[in-house]
């Protein structure tokens, strides 16, 4: 499985990036994992014109290539004001459904307090319609993020249970990746009549 982890914090050295690094370490050696930290790239804000993705030396072609190669994605967003980050939403708007359709995505929300559910709800409700990513039923909310995933071993029961939940979610993401590969192959090799007329969700 080729996995791309996208962390959507607009701050460098963020807790979202820390979580991404932990998830990378938990993947099997047989998996190829790449981490795209969106704040490291000067991406333009998408204005609806495909040409805007590549203006002013944008690194979008590089990111798009990584997404196209991926079998699955993990989308990590901080909760800011009860919302997913602007960088994450911009990334999802820029994604071409030819690169993302029918690929599983594990949604991860990162929050310094005890909330964190709102970004997951937002992404499930309206962020996946046109790019046709398939959010897995399980998601992760990393609450009190400064206090967890900081050491090689869990420091308390909450940290331990979170790590166990992460392992399960990553295992299931790999299962969905394998299962949905059949759909992607059929979508390409045995297209539904007038398939392109239904390239966007209702």
Automatic annotation (TrEMBL):
Residues 1-143 form the NADPH-dependent FMN reductase-like domain. Keywords: Flavoprotein, FMN. InterPro entries: Flavoprotein-like_sf (IPR029039), FMN_Rdtase-like_dom (IPR005025), NAD(P)H-dep_reductase (IPR050712). Pfam families: FMN_red. GO terms for molecular function: FMN binding; oxidoreductase activity. GO terms for cellular component: cytosol. This is Azoreductase, putative.
């Amino acid at each position: 499985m080729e996995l791309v982890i996208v962390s959507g914090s607009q701050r460098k050295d963020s807790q979202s990036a820390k979580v991404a690094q932990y998830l990378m370490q938990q993947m099997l050696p047989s998996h190829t994992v790449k981490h795209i930290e969106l704040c490291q790239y000067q991406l333009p804000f998408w204005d609806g014109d495909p040409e805007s993705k590549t203006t002013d030396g944008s690194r979008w072609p590089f990111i798009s290539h990584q997404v196209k190669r991926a079998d699955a994605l993990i989308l990590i967003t901080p909760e800011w004001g009860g919302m997913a980050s602007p960088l994450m939403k911009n990334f999802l708007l820029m994604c071409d459904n030819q690169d993302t359709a029918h690929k599983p995505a594990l949604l991860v929300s990162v929050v310094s307090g005890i909330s964190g559910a709102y970004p997951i709800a937002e992404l499930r409700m309206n962020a996946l319609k046109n790019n046709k990513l398939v959010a897995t039923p399980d998601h992760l909310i990393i609450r009190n993020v400064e206090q967890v995933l900081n050491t090689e071993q869990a420091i308390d029961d909450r940290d331990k249970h979170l790590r166990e939940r992460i392992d399960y979610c990553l295992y299931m993401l790999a299962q969905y990746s394998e299962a949905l590969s059949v759909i992607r192959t059929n979508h390409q090799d045995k297209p539904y009549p007038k398939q392109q007329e239904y390239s966007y969700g209702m």
